[in-house]
Amino acid sequence: MRPSALFACLWASATALPSSLPAGRDVSIVQLSNQPPSDLPTTWQWTSTGPLVGPKNDGRGIAGIKDPTIILINGTHHVFASTAQSAGYNLVYFTFADWADAPNATFYYLDQAPLGTGYRAAPQVFWFAPHKLWYLVYQNGNAAYSTNPDINNPKGWTAPKVFYPDGMPKIIEQNIGEGYWVDMWVICDSASCHLFSSDDNGQLYRSETSLEQFPNGMSQPVIAMQDNRNDLFEAACVYSLPDGKYLLLVEAIGTDGHRWFRSWTADSIRGPWQGLANTEQNPWARSNNVQFDGDVWTKSISHGEIIRDGTVDEKLLIDPCNIRFMYQGMDPSAGGEYNALPWRLGFIAHNNPAC
Ligand SMILES: *[C@@H]1O[C@H](CO)[C@@H](O)[C@H](O)[C@H]1NC(C)=O
Ligand SMILES: *[C@@H]1O[C@H](CO)[C@@H](O)[C@H](O)[C@H]1NC(C)=O
């Protein structure tokens, strides 16, 4: 999620770069094999809901609801998302049981919590089992987090603390160009915790600290992956799979100007990442592999998250047999100021699981 006040038409007319693969990554192994890793298919098909969640008519003047993070516990979906308007970004929390109830979910704005007012965006929620605390990771100009012992209590989120007390790490300063530092994401294995972020300029970064030290001690980042700016833009998610492998998703800007997702797998959070479905012809999720229940309300399959169901701890385990992704989409004819675009939230459900 990009925080600036530029114009949407700049994105629509973004240079059409070839959809090339990261240097040094051999996807032919995956493409030629009939044995995809971790029960994941090498081609993906989805069915989408309509737009289910948008701004309320509640006087706040919010233009878009964006960047959802979602978990399903005890039959309740818990969602945290960005609220976007010309004046800037903050966060909202809501819950619902069935997807059909999502349009009527009550909004709890997190500027009412100690988490506070001002720029906060692109949240990620997880239960950090060693601390018996919920963590909400988000961007506030740095990589920030708040904690809460009870996810059901939106007033319980603490004031922001940052992962990089010295400010933007040098390697990001050196590579960010005209981009923005966005979309922080934490995932841990049994020994260490890793913090991913993007620079809207073709770099995906990764830092790490030990499980014992988390949330302190984040290392200087390394470049986890690098590609053309549009092909490796932002909104990275990393999940663990039941066989111990990892799935990486990164949002790209398509040659048609619309957003879509690429995917990779690896044996370790440190990589190396092998392409799974990561081209416009064979995307993870893009307008050309998503069918709609009803109107085709969006051509962008943009910033979102796979529903974590059951296990919601720092290992971010997902079930490859039942993938449902909450995403942001938008009326393709909408335009105007970037922060005031009318993003809405919907779901895509995976149609052709390999298991
Ligand atoms: C889920 O249900 C269990 C058992 O009733 C309860 O202990 C737990 O607190 C619930 N979790 C949440 C997040 O509400
Ligand atoms: C949402 O609320 C409106 C107004 O209260 C009601 O008319 C509508 O049926 C509700 N929709 C759902 C899906 O519950």
TrEMBL record:
It catalyses: Hydrolysis of terminal non-reducing alpha-L-arabinofuranoside residues in alpha-L-arabinosides. SUPFAM superfamilies: Arabinanase/levansucrase/invertase. Gene3D superfamilies: Glycosyl hydrolase domain, family 43 (2.115.10.20). The keyword Cell cycle does not apply. Its main location: secreted. InterPro entries: GH62_arabinosidase (IPR005193), Glyco_hydro_beta-prop_sf (IPR023296). Keywords: Glycosidase, Hydrolase, Secreted, Signal. GO terms for biological process: L-arabinose metabolic process; xylan catabolic process. The keyword Hydrolase applies. This is Alpha-L-arabinofuranosidase.
